[in-house]
Recover the amino acids of this structure.
């Protein structure tokens, strides 16, 4: 995830790693042989599950890894008793593959908001 999103700041890496193994958090990976080529996370918060951190490496794109991760996380949310599944991605323009994967998985856009800017 850190490689795909370009997060190299130690604090960002620590923040991302801090949820591993914690209650209500699950991490998923798609492997090609022994190498992880895509990851995704889900956080269960009562009746709501937040899917995020979907990040394929460039060589893992266009091969269904993100769709498989969305499906796995949606099934996990259903099994955990969640009623809602939420996600965030950028708006369309010119083409947002993540958005298209989410739409294909059945998620519907509710609103747009400003994106955070990370500064070092």
């Amino acid at each position: 995830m850190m490689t795909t999103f370009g997060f190299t700041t130690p604090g960002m890496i620590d923040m991302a790693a801090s949820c591993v193994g914690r209650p209500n958090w699950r991490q998923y990976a798609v492997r090609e042989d022994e190498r992880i080529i895509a990851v995704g996370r889900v956080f269960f918060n009562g009746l709501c599950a937040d899917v995020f951190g979907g990040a394929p490496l460039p060589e893992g794109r266009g091969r269904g890894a993100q769709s498989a991760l969305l499906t796995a996380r949606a099934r996990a949310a259903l099994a955990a008793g969640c009623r809602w599944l939420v996600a965030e991605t950028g708006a369309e323009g010119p083409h947002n593959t993540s958005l298209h994967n989410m739409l294909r998985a059945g998620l519907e856009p509710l609103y747009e908001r400003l994106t955070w800017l990370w500064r070092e």
